[in-house]
Write a structure and sequence with these properties.
alpha/beta, TIM Barrel, three-stranded parallel sheet
């Protein structure tokens, strides 16, 4: 692979469209090797429309098949399908109902969690997804947390409960050939703010206990991808939020916890990053911190040319020596390892 192709593998982007014809921008980007993955949403946040990428099971399957057929290297096709309030595949679009992580943690019946997770995984597999941004393993430390607790996204404030149920979710997805992504490292459950909206400081609320689900699932060999949080904790890094922190990603996550899989940034368009750093600086810091996949959901701001613009920025960082070719090689290697064995496209309809 050329340097450009390797760098393209690191980009996972969102796009508009219920279908993707040969002249659509996302097909153009995939064909040119500018992206290694895509993320689908049911709602377009900017347009306040439900016509983003998801209308029906058949439509989603056809969309994903057209995306994969344009790719020389199979795409990661991701979605946030945690269950409950965070489920992009909704009943109103013809998909099965889901339940919240909090309700499953409260029942504390691993077999029940496994059944629900298996139903979700089967739905994703049938549609052609291969990566679920789940399970969420943040601890439910602050129930009024505006982005975790209020949406009932956490299984429990207790690490034992979170780990027990997260492992069932992972196992069910693996049975259906899907990859999972733990989120949000090093723990978002204690935050009082929403990193979608701006700078989020957890220095006075974060607890070392929040590392335990990550530590134990990694030690169990069941973590293949981890998503970073955009939270700031001066006790872990006095300068940078977790997504941009070498101390937190390369130090804490990789060296201390021993994680060797792919690190995926949370959405780089979220205001905790985009309002504090220009895009080029954020990309430089994120890559050098140890992120392997740069997620740009393209749904808080929208730019039809986001893949091309981002790729050129990354290549410029390498050309200037601010990011090494070795870092691109390392990240691309992890992306390809995450993709190993994935189907090239859903079966013909």
């Amino acid at each position: 692979m050329t340097l450009r192709e390797k760098a393209g593998q690191l980009l996972l982007v969102g796009f508009r469209g219920l279908e993707a014809g040969p002249h659509s921008p996302i097909i153009r980007d995939i064909g040119a090797g500018r992206v290694g993955g895509v993320v689908l949403f049911d709602r377009d946040t900017i347009l306040k429309s439900d016509r983003r990428n998801i209308r029906s099971p058949l439509q989603v399957r056809r969309l994903i098949r057209s995306l994969q057929e344009a790719a020389a290297v199979p795409l990661l096709v991701a979605v946030d399908q945690e269950g409950g309030r965070v489920a992009r595949l909704k009943e109103k679009h013809g998909f099965p109902a889901t339940v919240s992580a909090r309700s499953l943690g409260a029942a504390d019946d691993p077999a029940l969690t496994r059944r629900h997770a298996a139903a979700t995984a089967a739905t994703l597999e049938a549609a052609g997804f291969n990566l679920n941004f789940a399970p969420l393993v943040d601890l439910d430390i602050y129930p009024e947390n505006p982005i975790i607790g209020k949406f009932q996204r956490s299984f429990s404030p207790e690490p034992d409960v979170v780990v027990r149920h997260a492992l069932e979710v992972i196992a069910a997805h693996h049975e259906h050939g899907l990859r999972c992504c733990l989120k949000h490292f090093p723990g978002h459950g204690s935050s009082r703010g929403d990193s979608h909206l701006g700078f989020t400081d957890v220095s006075e609320t974060w607890q070392p206990l929040e590392l335990e689900p990550f530590r134990r699932i990694i030690a169990d060999g069941r973590a293949e991808a981890v998503m970073t949080a955009h939270i700031f904790n001066r006790h872990l890094d006095p300068e940078f939020p977790a997504t941009l922190s070498k101390k937190i990603i390369s130090g804490l996550l990789r060296r201390e916890l021993g994680f060797a899989g792919a690190v995926i940034s949370d959405d780089m368009d979220m205001k905790a990053i985009s309002a504090e750093y220009d895009r080029e600086t954020a990309l430089e810091l994120a890559l050098n911190a140890g992120n392997d996949i740069l997620l740009i959901a393209n749904n808080l701001d929208y730019d039809e040319e986001i893949a091309a613009r981002t790729l050129e920025l990354v290549l410029g960082l390498v050309d200037s020596g601010r990011v090494s070719t070795a870092r691109i090689d390392e990240a691309c290697g992890r992306v390809l390892e995450l993709k190993a064995g994935l189907a090239a496209a859903p079966a013909a309809i």
